[in-house]
Amino acid sequence: MTLAPDQSSIDLAARLDVHATRSEVVRAAPISPSLWELTLRGAASLLAGQPGNDVMLSLQGEKRLLRRRYSVRSVDEENDTLTLWMSTRHVGPGATFVQQCSPGDQIDLVGPRGKILLDPLADWHLFVGDTCALGAFYRMAQSIEPPGRAIFIVEVDEPDDALTASFREGLGITGVFVNRDGRPPGDPTGVLRGLAAFSFPADTGQAYLFGEFSTMNVARMALMDRGLSAEQISFKAFWRAGQANQDQGEPARD
Ligand SMILES: Cc1cc2nc3c(=O)[nH]c(=O)nc-3n(C[C@H](O)[C@H](O)[C@H](O)COP(=O)(O)OP(=O)(O)OC[C@H]3O[C@@H](n4cnc5c(N)ncnc54)[C@H](O)[C@@H]3O)c2cc1C
User: Fold this and answer.
1) Phi, psi of 29 (to 5 degrees)
2) What mean pLDDT do residues 108-113 have?
3) Cβ proximity of 144 and 168 under 8 Å
4) In whole angstroms, what is the distance from residue 29 CA to residue 33 CA?
5) How far is the CA of 17 from the centre of ligand 1 (A)?
6) Ligand 1 — pocket residues by CB below 6 A?
7) Dist. CA 24 → ligand 1 center (Å)
8) How far is Cα of residue 57 from the mean position of the Cα atoms in its chain?
9) Which percentage of the chain shows pLDDT scores above 90?
10) Band of the pLDDT at 214, cuts 50, 70, 90?
């Protein structure tokens, strides 16, 4: 029997004008050295929103309940399930949950969250980030109408984290995966190398930067140096090297 969500989740969802539900774990399994896929059942379409949206998971921290945000990778309306691709490269309540949960476990979800969606007017879409952004990037790119172009510049922790996906026929797809090669989190060298290796198409594009706080800030500057305007860059820090995300799921911004 699925229980009602906790009152704190209901209150949060009401404040954000989104949905709260208690979802059931259907499956959790590794899909690469650094990513697990979590499949959850319950109010999936309501929570999943649009490509680019994420959900907040309610998790037990050391001392209190806290929330972590994960982009929706896919939604299956028929089976009322959604999937998340969750990084397990580090130790934290989110990473621990996905590796320890079992089918039938229940967890509160609040969503859909997030304001960055695909720009439907862009001719090309540049996705820049790290392993934990792959789920968001692939869901967004799978919604691009042909003829469009998606370019992925993603720093992966291990070569086998360079997961692939299938896209609509008629799309131009370019993937540049840069191996982290043991560089510490927050080192922008890999992402900058990936950007340097690529010439941007001439027509109008939109860049989406999802990843580690400092690295994404450096990537944003690099893109502006190469002529992209601030409006052409959709930026979201997903995590921050050396610091746990705050209890509401966001990395600190100072
Ligand atoms: C809008 C949004 C969408 C997101 N979507 C996804 C997603 O689809 N998939 C996903 O995996 N993550 C996603 N994230 C990032 C995820 O929420 C953070 O990585 C979060 O810190 C994980 O929580 P945790 O409890 O496991 O670790 P925390 O308790 O937050 O952190 C513990 C330690 O781990 C480090 N750490 C945290 N994340 C990483 C990482 N990815 N790689 C290396 N070290 C890390 C921290 O620096 C800290 O030292 C998203 C974040 C936001 C804000």
Assistant:
1) -155, 150
2) 98
3) yes
4) 11
5) 24
6) 54, 68-71, 84-87, 89-90, 92-95, 114, 132, 135-136, 185, 236, 238-245, 249-250
7) 21
8) 13
9) 93
10) very high
Q: Position 137: which residue type?
A: F
**Mean pLDDT over each residue of the chain, to the nearest integer:** 96
Q: Using CA atoms, how far apart are residues 150 and 140, in angstroms rounded to an integer?
A: 10
Which helix H or strand E contains 216, and what residues bound it? Answer: helix 213-225
Domains identified in the chain and CATH numbers? 7-112 (2.40.30.10), 124-239 (3.40.50.80)
Q: Which distant-in-sequence residues (6+ apart) come within 8 Å of 36 by Cβ?
A: 28, 29, 30, 85, 86, 88, 98, 99
Q: What is the pTM of this model?
A: 0.97
18-64 pLDDT, tens digit each: 999 999 999 999 999 999 999 999 999 999 999 999 999 999 888 88
Partnered with residue 84 across adjacent β-strands are: 38, 72
SS3 content of the chain, % helix, strand, coil (to 5): 25, 35, 40
Query: Quick check: helix, strand or coil at residue 50?
Result: coil
The CA distance from 115 to 18, in Å, is 13
pLDDT at residue number 61:
81
Mutate which of 36, 90, 158, 208 for ligand 1? The one with the most ligand atoms within 8 Å of its CB, which is 90
* pLDDT computed for residue 60 by the predictor: 84
d(CA 134, CA 121): 22
Edge-to-edge strand order for the sheet containing 124-130?
Answer: 172-179, 149-156, 124-130, 205-212, 233-239
Give residue 52's pLDDT: 98
From the CA atom positions of the chain, what is the Rg in Å? 18
